[in-house]
Amino acid sequence: MKLSNETVAVLKNFAAMNPSVVLRPGKVIRTVSTQKTIIAVASVDEEFDTQAGIYDISRFLSTLSLFKEPEIVFGENRFTVRGDRTELKYTYTSENMIVTPPIKDLVIPNPITTIPVEWKSIESATRAAGVLQLPEIAFVCDGDTITLTALDHKTPTADTFSVVVADNCESKSFRIIINVGNIKLMPNDYDVTLSNEGIVHFKSDAIQYWVASESI
User: Fold this and answer.
1) In whole angstroms, what is the distance from residue 104 CA to residue 146 CA?
2) Which of 207, 4, 199 is nearest to 107 (CA)?
3) Which domain holds residue 60?
4) pTM (predicted TM-score)
5) Is 104 inside any structural domain?
6) pLDDT in tens, the chain (216 residues)
7) CATH number of the domain where residue 71 is located
8) Same structural domain for residues 211 and 121?
């Protein structure tokens, strides 16, 4: 098996949340952040036929860079990586050494609404949070539009930055806040499901995230 560039990108993204991962049989990779504030699920082109635990994703990917076109064989208890006249054996890590996510997708409780959000809006808000040194971004409905806003809700006088992501707000006013450190999304446009029950769901064609939130 050769890992596609897209799958390598997924693994790098997941490593930002949790340095370890368990690859399970099938074409889906799942992870959960070590603080359990983010769950992510990605569909990939490759189909894994054996469960394999990787303790350090970044180290594993670095070993693949030792080969020009690495071919990965899933064994009973370790990977064998082969290249031109070279071979590397990489032992699996036991699942009980890794923080693992639920096997099934989460169901969003009592969703308020689902809106399409372009990546450029998410990127603008998170970049503004960094520039203005703000700890949070929020989906805010003022009774008219929905904005994605960089803010510090504990400091009313703090600077803010907002970008409109929906022209109509079908619900009563709300403010759903996410710690900006939990925004570890791959660059995609997303359908975003909002709820007052402490979770926001970001879904694209091949990857989705459930992110802890706070309604204020």
Assistant:
1) 30
2) 199
3) 5-97
4) 0.94
5) no
6) 999 999 999 999 999 999 999 999 999 999 999 999 999 999 999 999 999 999 999 999 999 999 988 999 999 999 999 988 899 999 999 999 999 999 999 999 889 999 999 999 999 999 999 999 999 999 999 888 999 999 999 998 999 999 999 998 876 789 999 999 999 999 999 999 999 999 999 999 999 999 999 988
7) 3.70.10.10
8) yes
Q: Which residue has the tokens 């930055």?
A: 161
Q: How many other C-beta atoms lie within 10 A of the C-beta of residue 191?
A: 14
Clarify whether residues 140 and 64 are in a common domain. no
List CB contacts of 207: < 8 A, sequence separation 6 or more. Answer: 10, 40, 41, 42, 43, 186, 188
Are 139 and 116 a contacting pair, CB within 8 Å?
no
User: Which residue reads 């080969």 in tokens?
Assistant: 67
Which phi-psi region, left, alpha or beta, contains residue 10 (left: φ > 0; alpha: ψ -120 to 50)? alpha
